[in-house]
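Agenda item 2: zinc ion complex prediction
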Amino acid sequence: MRLPHALLFAGPPGVGKRELAEALAARLLCEAPRGAYETACGECPSCLMMANGQHPDYRVLQPEADSEVEGGEGVADGDKKKASRQIRIQQIRELEDFFHVGGHRGGARVCLIDPAEAMNPIVANSLLKILEEPSSSFYFIMISHRWRNLLPTLLSRSRRVMFGHPPVEESQRWLAEQKLDHTARWLPFFGHAPLALADAARSGRLKALETLVADLQRPGDPLALAVRWEGLVKADAALEMEELVVVVQKWLFDLGLSRVGAPPRYFDRQTLEPVAKKAALPALLRAQQQVGQLRAWANHPLNPKLFLEDLCVRALKPLNS
Ligand SMILES: [Zn+2]
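Presented output:
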């Protein structure tokens, strides 16, 4: 198999770039690929080490914050420092050592970088120095959700593979295979990225979103709602405040579309039905604007409770009129 030594998997989040990159890494390291597509065998010593996350010839470069989410190495408990959302220069230095020491098992060595945009220009430039050194057995697989932001030199040194959104039927079939067919109506909300939706379903985030939408379908007293929503965004809960505001924004946006007879973009008609008829368009547009302004404060509200009360009052006004 002849493969470029630096690949860039580019496309929207949640469509399977990371999954394919991991499968390709396993294939490159596998000692006995098999099947019509010569995929990793899953049984050789190399595949077993991959499955255990302990392959000595495989490295994953990702922001510390992402490693923490996966329960991997990260900032120790009690450490007040927030985990970085950037790939740090130190990680590239460690990669240099990895690069210059020969492979442990005499085969390929693979480094996965996810996402490439988490490297600032200084970090990206030190990676480029490694990319420029020819090595026949070293493969880089970079993942990017925003490849247009990458350094031009990084783009020119890698072969770009574009990923798009799968067709709806394909996403539905895949969700059914994952026993998640009941979540299919959320596909538009997740930008038709089935893996992002599946992630949300498994992490409990989708459940919080469903609660939120059920509340929006039957808006009652805004202040009572604010109390309920406070529980949804409390520390360690599945939803962040900004996400909550975005859901409300999308909801108002779709109500506006329904009101003028256009097809909704994020939710299905049935979901919107109970409130769509009651909402007056001018009030909806005003609410959209006000909620949009609130979004700027969502990540650091001075008082989360007051913020939510403000949000509920503004968002629900058009629905109660
Ligand atoms: Zn194998």
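Discussion summary: The first strand starts at residue 6 and ends at 10.
Owner for follow-up: CH.
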